[in-house]
From TrEMBL:
SMART domains: EAL (SM00052), GGDEF (SM00267), PAC (SM00086), PAS (SM00091). Residues 225-277 form the PAC domain. The lineage of its organism: Bacteria, Bacillati, Actinomycetota, Actinomycetes, Kitasatosporales. InterPro entries: Biofilm_reg_signaling, EAL_dom, EAL_sf, GGDEF_dom, Nucleotide_cyclase, PAC, PAS, PAS-assoc_C. Residues 307-441 form the GGDEF domain. GO terms for biological process: regulation of DNA-templated transcription. Pfam families: EAL, GGDEF, PAS. This is Diguanylate phosphodiesterase. It comes from the Bacteria.
Length: 714
């Protein structure tokens, strides 16, 4: 069955037809155009597959470029026409179903690799021709002096018919003979060119060793050399060549002539410069991209002792909102305007601006006095953003957060400097944005440590690096131990024991809090079962209860209720032995959907404690709708009771909270009890239970066993 005209095969055939029509006029082939099109079709198939492949295969793309040389497409115009065709039509006909930006980037990389493969194959072909010419030239040494030599005819045929330029000069540099290809390359007549001397062709772009090599050759010190060299044409343009110069000796081995072979690489060089520009500049704004910026920064850092740098890392505030509300086209126009403004801020020698990606830009200044210059550059950047940007009749305010790093070269790598700038920029953003911050080594170290902890969290849970300490809950009336709060710790291999304040926020941010919280719940309930089995009959108030903290992320997780039920059932522990603590701030403004899992757990018999009560500015009337049975009073309300006489304001506040709680049939637990006077005052005020260093610090479960046994035995 043949492919539909508009199907993938039909579109590929149209691409091949366009390609063959463009390429055929500059191809040296005996095929008809239709036959030549059939020869290109497999190459089009390979390009289509490379465009849509999961990973980029540079070698396969190079092979396509080499195949063009094998197909006799060796005219300098052939590569240009091929790349223009691929650039214009490959994505159009072979990538209509994919993300266009990614496909166009892939197409650009394909063109680059094709050009490299084409250049390599053409060079190998040229070198083969050069070898044949050189061999013919060597066999024909003495042709000028011995006109009747038998090999002159063969040498002349190669000399005149070669596709590369060939010239012969004496050891004084006088040009004696040139072929037609060389005349075409220079755009000169044979008489004009033969009247020139080699030394007339010096060029400002000549490599330093070029003429040193030439002197060594004409003195007989070397047999040949190869360089890339530029020549000025009469029309003012520059001819770039791969130049190979060989020494020809007479039959006695004495130096006699020099033979120059020139391959025109002008088009290839221009293509390379174009591809190099595209690879090192941002397509949207025209600014240098991440690649070029790192090249420049690493060059500065390697400049040696005494060199300094200053770097400003800018991230626009609220750019995502503009993209989401006005569309990506408006966002792109905003980025272009910002890029233009930033470019105008960095015009002094040693300054540059680059776009790293998205709405992130970086400005670099180098040379002496960067301590002052980077501050001035940062000020210019912030001032440039104050004027609104007009897009589609709307004036958009542009604000940015800026991180500044300045220092001597050689002390840090480019990656370390950019990381410091990135950290500093986010510090400015966290402080409210629209401001700049100077890098601080201690702040960088804290951020790096925080990042290290974040990346180590998942494997830490797998390796069993977490453990639980228990702080007893004591009844204020009779001093008996009623239970304990489970407090998770992390035994980090490098940082030692870390408290929950160091890693719980990171776990919440990464989503690991759900499996970590499940593990804490399971371990705590297992410990509660052990207490019940070993000490339940020996305590004065019955089995010990376990309090487990519940993160807001866990509260909104759909598996909370089922996980809790499963763990209780597997452990054989009744729901009454478990109390889940939820911070007051997590329940402020909570709707019925958020409260539903807590209500279900409360209906099962699980106690719900409202932790840190008094810090969340909640409406006390909301207590009636929350499924809580315990209020945990924040330590800030009882700190004034540690000394005698107690703060009367604190006494009134606590007295009012206890009265309100008891009227709602809620028990009151107090945190942070550190003195006997404090404990006695809270008992008088009617608080039910307390915990704090006055009774015991958090510790292993055995310590709680001892406290419970002491309580039971008196």
């Amino acid at each position: 069955m043949s492919a539909e005209p508009d199907g993938p095969e039909g579109r590929l055939r149209r691409l091949t037809t366009i390609w063959s029509r463009s390429l055929f006029p500059v191809t040296s082939t005996s095929l008809t155009r239709a036959e030549f099109e059939e020869e290109l079709l497999p190459l089009a198939h390979r390009l289509s597959s490379l465009l849509r492949a999961r990973s980029f295969d540079a070698e396969e793309a190079k092979a396509v470029g080499a195949a063009l040389v094998e197909a006799h497409c060796t005219d300098p115009e052939a590569l240009t026409r091929t790349l223009d065709c691929v650039d214009a039509y490959l994505v159009l006909y072979c990538g209509e179903d994919g993300p266009q930006d990614e496909l166009r980037m892939r197409s650009s990389r394909l063109q680059h690799a094709m050009a490299a493969g084409y250049a390599q194959a053409l060079r190998e072909r040229t070198l083969a021709e050069q070898e044949a010419i050189a061999q013919a030239a060597l066999r024909a040494q003495g042709v000028v002096a011995q006109a009747l030599h038998a090999s002159e005819a063969r040498f002349r045929a190669v000399f005149e018919g070669a596709a590369i330029g060939i010239g012969i000069a004496d050891l004084d540099g006088n040009v004696l003979q040139v072929n037609k290809a060389l005349l075409r390359m220079f755009g000169l007549s044979e008489q004009t060119l033969r009247g020139r001397r080699v030394f007339d062709w010096t060029h400002p772009e000549d490599a330093p060793q070029t003429w040193k090599l030439y002197d060594e050759l004409v003195r007989g010190g070397r047999e040949h050399y190869h360089v890339e060299k530029a020549f000025n044409r009469p029309d003012g343009t520059v001819l770039w060549t791969n130049l190979t110069v060989s020494l020809l000796r007479d039959p006695d081995g004495n130096p006699q002539y020099q033979l120059a072979l020139m391959e025109d690489t002008t088009e290839r060089r221009l293509l390379h410069l174009r591809l190099r520009y595209e690879a090192t500049h941002d397509a949207l704004t025209g600014l240098p991209n991440r690649t070029l910026f790192f090249e420049r920064l690493e060059k500065v850092l390697g400049a040696g002792e005494g060199q300094r740098f200053g770097l400003c890392y800018l991230d626009l505030d609220g750019f995502k909102t503009i993209n989401d509300s006005l569309g990506h086209a408006a966002g792109d126009r905003l980025l272009v305007e910002v890029a233009d403004r930033l470019q105008s801020c960095a015009t002094a020698p040693g300054e540059m601006v680059a776009r790293l990606g998205g709405d992130e830009f970086v400005a670099l200044t180098t040379g002496p006095g960067t301590e002052r210059k980077v501050d001035e550059l940062a000020e210019r950047i912030m001032n440039a953003l104050t004027t609104p940007v007009s897009i589609d009749g709307r004036d958009l305010l542009v604000r940015g957060s800026l991180g500044i790093v300045e220092g001597p070269a050689g002390e840090r790598t480019a990656a370390e400097i950019l990381r410091s700038a990135d950290i500093t920029m986010y510090r400015a953003k966290s402080a409210g944005g629209n401001r700049s911050e100077l890098a601080d080594a201690e702040a960088d170290a804290r951020a790096i440590t925080r990042h290290g902890l974040t990346t180590a969290l998942p494997t830490a849970l797998e390796r069993g690096e977490f453990f639980i300490e228990y702080q007893p809950l004591v009844h204020l009336g009779d001093g008996s131990v009623r239970g304990a709060e489970a407090l998770v710790r992390w035994l980090h291999p490098q940082h030692g024991v870390l408290g929950p304040d160091r890693f719980i926020p990171l776990a919440e941010h990464t989503g690991l809090i759900v499996p970590l919280g499940r593990w804490v719940l399971e371990e705590s309930i297992r410990q509660a079962r052990e207490w019940r089995e070993r000490y339940g009959e020996q305590t004065t108030a019955g089995p010990l209860r376990i309090n487990v903290n519940l993160s807001p992320c866990q509260l909104s997780h759909p598996g909370l209720v089922q996980d809790t039920v499963d763990i209780l059932e597997r452990s054989g522990v009744t729901p009454e032995a478990l109390c889940l603590e939820v911070t007051e701030s997590a329940l402020i403004g909570a709707d019925d959907d958020l409260l539903k899992p807590l209500r279900r757990l409360a209906e099962m018999g699980v106690d719900i404690a409202l932790d840190d009560f008094g810090t969340g500015y909640s409406n006390l009337a909301n207590l009636r709708r929350l499924p809580v049975s315990i209020l945990k009073l924040d330590r800030s309300f009882t700190r004034g009771m540690q000394q005698f006489p107690a703060d009367p304001v604190d006494l009134k506040i606590v007295e009012g909270i206890v009265s309100l709680a008891h009227s709602l049939d809620l028990a009151v637990t107090v945190e942070g009890v550190e003195t006997g006077a404090q404990a006695e005052q809270l008992r008088i005020l009617g608080c039910d239970t307390a915990q704090g260093w006055y009774y015991a610090r958090p510790g292993p479960p055995e310590r709680l066993h001892d406290l419970a046994l002491v309580d039971a035995t008196g």
